[in-house]
Amino acid sequence: MSLRLSTVILPYRRWNEGGRSAWTRAEQLGFHTAYTYDHLSWRSFRDGPWFGAIPTLTAAASVTDQLRLGTLVTSPNFRHPVTLAKELISLDDISGGRVTLGIGAGGTGFDATALGQEPWTPRERANRLAEFVPLLDRLLTEASVSYTGEFYAAHEARNIPGCVQRPRLPFAVAATGPRGLKLAARHGQAWVTTGDPKLYENGTPEQSVQAIRGQVEKLTDACVDLGRDVHALDKILLTGFTPDRGRPLESLDAFVDFAGRHQELGFTELVVHWPIPDSDFAADEKVFEQIVMEAPAQLR
Asked: What global pTM score does this model have?
């Protein structure tokens, strides 16, 4: 299977000061999907401009025609399934059915406390995601939903006419633990990983490939337990968080080597960050565009 190439465009620029042009250029370059982070703020960008994911994707939908759009990833940290479902159905309609929802448990960053709450423990984040995803699934596929759970509730929540994509827009579930992998196997049309975070600082690319191979094997086991063919699930690697860091974007050959090693593990989509000067995602824009235009032909 050919390896699809997608990008993440961080929402740090005003729409009329470079924001719009990045999305239109992503379509011109032939990316499969352009995602954005769904955070209230993020790491080193916290004290600068940072815009909301859903409005940004809505604007992107209005200036593109073929490019798929998505979040990478949305989490329960500041989202509620009822309000999120309404926004997603609206976005799917505006885009003509081009939306993918990347979704995960979230972390302990700024989103975790922005609403005034204490950060949730890893167990509570997993518990919330395990309730959030099935409820969101229902909200996007049923005309009216009532539900009372441990963390979330819905009372006659209506979502008519539903998604353009049927039965709903696809979920790409980010997970590495057993509970998250089960959610991906049960509800996901795709699975997302960034690799093993424990290897980012001092690990090697070879160790990273081995760790990711182990994640794929665990995903396979989760699918087998549910009677699902793991090959029916797209596998997405969000790059930039393995020990390779930005090196794959230094040259076409470096990227093809990196991508090929992960394609052998069964990945169907690699996501690269749109270059941002003076950041962890800095890259030569000419080399970046050469990779986008020439690498896919070498990875078929």
From this structure: 0.97
